[in-house]
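Record 1 of the preview.
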Amino acid sequence: MAERGSARLRALVTAPLRGPGFEALQQLADVVYEPWLEYVPIRLYDPPRLAKRLAEMGADVLICEADFCSGEVMDLPLRAIVATRGELSNVDVAAATAAGIPVLYTPGRNADAVAELTVALLFAVNRRLVPADRDVRTGRVFTETLPYQRYRSDLLAGQTFGIVGLGAVGRAVRRRMEGLGLEVIAHDPYVAEATHSLEGLLAAADIVSMHAPPSAATAHMMAAPQFAAMRRGAVYLNTARAVLHDLDALVAALESGHLGGCGLDHFDGEQLPEGHPLCGRDDVVLTPHIGGASYHTEQVQASMVAADLQRLLDGERPAHIANPEVLS
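->
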């Protein structure tokens, strides 16, 4: 292995990486690969244990996804910390900046995967795939009604699809929905091409899909007044974060019959309480925060990591750096 101070790096990698980007990274550094997802139960380092592991191997670079990077980690002579995330909730960026450590990240790395799950949830809600599947599995295909009576639905093509948050995921969703023949409108106060206000979007859309980032400004941006402003029979999708909506207000809008269904991929605390009202509804499809769970995501983030580390080594500004001030 290369000695510290030479051009070649030593990297501890606890994020799942694969594909050409991972191969490129291995050309840049001597890699110790310990992806957290490969352990059962999963293994996440806290700061003391992470610092100890980095020191043991004499690492110059940490590439992580879910380990907690703060405290003792910032006392090490790291040349970079890379978090394969769109938001740096697991890295103490201020402490890294104080220590002069560049922090790189990978915004948009899971955009296509989340967009595909959004499509899947929409079809599952609209065609009621979950109860239909249950009917077949339990032998209740022909009951007092026929399947053609229970599972008729409108075509999605021609409907209006409203995107709230036109970032990387929102744009990936837009491409897919336009390809399916839906009219796509968007609300995002930070994107000029998103021309609708939230109120205008809710009034016009047959489907409302949430892709805004979680923040103080977006917390519960979908509450009782907003759900009431949606079209009767409209579908609500959220493959972003649960904090964007008031869950009790969503349940009430479904129970009143005002909304026609919903698909959710995230919940406060990562799961619903046992016996929650949503769990018994056939017009609801629930998935356990798996929007980004794609091998493609691991390929994309590997390529982003390798490219930005190469820029850093070449004395260039990385494309995605949280604290560019350390470069000077």
